[in-house]
Write a structure and sequence with these properties.
Layout (H helix, E strand, L loop, with lengths): L4 E6 L2 H8 L9 E4 L6 E4 L1 H5 L12 H6 L3 E4 L2 H16 L5 E5 L2 E5 L5 H19 L3 E6 L2 H13 L6 E3 L7 H4 L11 H10 L5 H6 L2 H19 L17 E11 L2 H21 L2 E12 L10 E12 L2 H15 L6 E9 L2 E2 L7 H24 L39
Parallel strand pairs: 2-4, 7-8
Antiparallel strand pairs: 1-6, 1-7, 2-3, 5-6, 9-12, 10-11, 10-12, 10-13
Helix pairs in contact: 4-5, 11-12
Length: about 425
């Protein structure tokens, strides 16, 4: 049976998450800010209608915010991640074939359904996601993943479609593809799109019909696949297996300039803990850690410094204290007194599966105790709230933390921030 794909995409995801727990925001313009409350990274439809652009610095639109009573929030990553997982859990009940593509979108396989069932089935998915999470989604259906991306965009831009658009109903898709700029085709983007426009390829329709040799010369096999997909030939399968990352990075900009080595150690310790949590979550061990610090390269009047160092662990490990100790040693080698640092981070590499470690009997017992301790901490922090149990080296006050002055409550992951109901 010929495969059919659907792309399920949460509408204005970050802004929609804020609305779920604050009904007063319905029909009101909402924006969400980047790290340190710097730029706009998410907008509701109402905010878009005001002309607020993605990436614009927050301070530049404060007049628009005030004049139009726009609600604004710091990024609430804990809330968004949990809401995303709830969406994906609902999706997995409807199809065994699912590829989580990003925090707010997933490809699913609808291979077992007849064409007559596709729209009604996807409306059921849309309705249940909304019942379970309060989040609106758009679903684009097509014969290939690339076409399902396009179908999803049509769905978002046309309210009359009511959240679901089945592109398989159109045998001749040329009229639809002619309305899609080549730069908006999945896998092409602005840089390549500008090149193709110079040779007369302006739309997805043009790209689908141009000489394959022209595409292959510029984009190789990736471009050939994209062209085939636009012509309804599926050649990009679902990636259902969540592959372990080969590198894990944990990094943040500070909420202020940091010159003190003790504060830097707190930050590096905290980022190391985060990286190790991710490492254990994918059931892996790491052999190397890289620590880096940097100044604000936009402020040239300040003394500039950016440096990082690698170190190898004695054995493959996921035991946080080992990595914290090594990270602090690396930091002291690259730190320069009096320099105003704005960012730090760590990277784990040399990542291997956690069942690949070969140990003697005594070492095996010690490894088992260490793994049990880490698992216990991870479970407590997952069930009760992040950092319920944390390492002292990460600090208490953490004055270096990035700014989140306007963050909403972590309604679903932190016991102390649950919603309360007055009766």
């Amino acid at each position: 049976m010929k495969n059919i794909f659907a792309l399920v995409d949460c509408n204005n995801f970050y802004a929609s998450c804020e609305r779920v727990f604050n009904p007063k925001l319905k029909s009101k313009p909402v924006v969400v800010l980047s790290n340190n409350d710097g730029c706009i990274v998410a907008r509701s439809d109402e905010a878009k209608a005001l002309g607020i652009k993605m990436g614009v610095p927050f301070f530049k639109i404060k007049d628009i915010i005030k004049k139009n009573n726009v609600a604004y929030f710091s990024s609430n990553y804990a809330l968004y991640a949990d809401m995303s997982q709830r969406v994906m859990d609902t999706l997995s009940k409807y199809t065994p074939g699912i590829e989580v593509y990003s925090i707010d979108e997933a490809f699913v396989s609808l291979q077992e359904l007849t064409k007559e069932d596709l729209t009604s089935y996807c409306k059921k998915i849309r309705d249940e996601i909304y019942r379970n999470t309060g989040l609106p989604v758009s679903i684009g259906i097509a014969e290939t993943k690339t076409l399902s991306k396009i179908a999803n965009e049509f769905c978002k831009k046309n309210a009359v479609l009511n959240g679901v658009f089945d592109m398989t109903q159109f045998k001749d898709k040329s009229k639809l593809l002619s309305r899609v700029p080549v730069i908006d085709v999945w896998g092409i983007g602005k840089a390549l799109g500008k090149h193709f426009m110079l040779i007369g390829v302006f739309s997805a329709k043009d790209f689908a019909s141009v000489d394959p040799c022209v595409i292959r010369k510029k984009m190789g096999v990736v471009g050939t696949r994209t062209q085939m997909e636009l012509n309804g030939i599926s050649c990009i399968d679902l990636d259902e297996i969540k592959h372990p990352k080969k590198e894990i990075i944990s990094s943040r900009s500070f909420g202020k300039y940091v010159t003190d080595i003790n504060e830097l150690e707190e930050a590096v310790s905290q980022y190391t803990c985060r990286a190790l949590e991710k490492l254990r979550m994918q059931r892996s061990l790491a052999n190397f850690i890289y620590v880096f610090i940097q100044t604000n390269h936009h402020k040239l009047s300040d003394t500039q410094h950016a440096e990082g160092r690698f170190a190898a662990l004695p054995n493959s490990s996921s035991f946080t204290p080992d990595f914290i100790q090594t990270a602090k040693q690396l930091l002291r080698k690259i730190y320069k007194p009096g320099i105003k640092y704005i960012k730090a981070g760590v990277m784990l590499s040399g990542i291997v599966p956690d069942d690949s470690l070969q140990l003697c009997i005594d070492d095996s017992k010690d490894h088992s105790r260490r793994r049990s301790l880490m698992n216990s901490i991870d479970i407590i922090n997952k069930d009760i709230g992040r950092d319920t149990v944390r390492f002292a080296s990460s600090g208490i006050n953490q004055n270096w933390q990035m700014k989140m002055s306007f963050r909403s409550r972590r309604y679903t992951t932190n016991w102390s921030e649950l919603m309360t109901v007055k009766i």
